[in-house]
Amino acid sequence: MATLVTGGAGYIGSHMVHALVDRGETVVVLDDLSTGFEAVLPDAATLVVGDIGDEVLVGGLIASRGIDAIVHFAGSIVVPESVADPLKYYLNNTVKSRALIAAAVRGGVGAFLFSSTAAVYGEPTVDAPIGETVAPAPVSPYGWSKLMTEVMLRDAAAAHGLAYTVLRYFNVAGADPKGRTGQSTPNATHLIKIACQTALGQRAKMQVFGTDYPTPDGTCLRDYIHVTDLVEAHVLALARLRAGGGNLVANCGYGRGFSVREVVEAVRRVSGVDFVAEVVDRRPGDPSALVADSGLIRRELGWVPALDDLDGIVGNALAWEAALARRNSAPGAR
Ligand code: UDP
């Protein structure tokens, strides 16, 4: 029994690899290191540097390493980039996922866990938390590229008996509480990371994109979820798949939202730094509120989040950002 984790050297993938290794599982990481880092991986995981779209490579790994489950994180994730370069997203996220699924089917891999996104819902018109019964309607090539993979999994499962789980992430944030890994991408655009970098003086100021949304304080609401809780949901989902649980498509969020202003205040509070957050115009394509209805995942997986606390998320993110800065300024740093 061994798990193949694609994108395992990336942000969420590396947390999953640690969680599996912590549980004594055998893990093979497949990552092309285009945005991932070998340094965040535990020694006990085997890293294979390669392309998830290489069916021969993946087929060989499945056969030679005894892979019985695939957890698929690898992909491109920047929404504006997907608008500017859609074919990159359809290649990296859709075409290569198709090759990976084909290798899984051919190799007899029984369990497939896929990281999808709330972006499949597009810009919901309802203000209530979003349940899985809301019809997907992506508004970006990124969202479409992920939804297409969900559809391929559904159809391949029906035809070939592959068992799968899709988790649709809301806003993943924070870092490993033990400090072993975190969000390492140099050009990240996510709010909590940007605010933490500003608090640490790595940016002179940050921007708040729009204060005229129909929300209590005028800024957008998002469901920020600690990456460690997200990974715990994956561990439970994987166990469920291995135990023969049926196919599942579930949201992964806490079911509550914080505004951009509340996040900025939390970062100021936790860091003790009163950094500048200037108000600018809306960023195109931001829905006013994206909050998960998380009933299904709690029921199906028995998932009980342990780290649902904004200040805690921010504290872990700040600690990781500071460690990253120290690492990058060390002699010989990449
Ligand atoms: N945001 C912001 N300033 C930033 C980055 C993000 O005001 O520097 C806002 C963004 O407009 C959105 C929210 O923070 O309303 C969350 O954005 P993020 O990019 O973190 O995640 P998204 O919800 O877009 O996936």
From TrEMBL:
Q: In which pathway does it act?
A: Carbohydrate metabolism; galactose metabolism
**Database matches in Pfam families:** Epimerase (PF01370)
Cofactor(s), names only, from the UniProt record: NAD(+)
Name any Gene Ontology BP term. Answer: galactose catabolic process via UDP-galactose, Leloir pathway
Which terms are listed as keywords in the entry?
Carbohydrate metabolism, Isomerase, NAD
Catalytic reaction equation(s) = UDP-alpha-D-glucose = UDP-alpha-D-galactose
Q: If you read the UniProt record, what top EC class would you report for this enzyme, in one word?
A: isomerase
Which terms in the Gene Ontology molecular function aspect does this entry carry?
A: UDP-glucose 4-epimerase activity
Q: Indicate the segments forming the NAD-dependent epimerase/dehydratase domain, all copies.
A: 4-253
State its Enzyme Commission number(s): 5.1.3.2
Which InterPro entries is this protein grouped with? Epimerase_deHydtase, NAD(P)-bd_dom_sf, UDP_G4E
Summary of subunit composition and partner proteins: Homodimer.
| Family to which the UniProt record says this protein belongs | Belongs to the NAD(P)-dependent epimerase/dehydratase family.
**Record NCBIfam families:** galE
Q: What is this protein called?
A: UDP-glucose 4-epimerase
The species this protein was found in? Oharaeibacter diazotrophicus
Organism lineage reads as: Bacteria, Pseudomonadati, Pseudomonadota, Alphaproteobacteria, Hyphomicrobiales
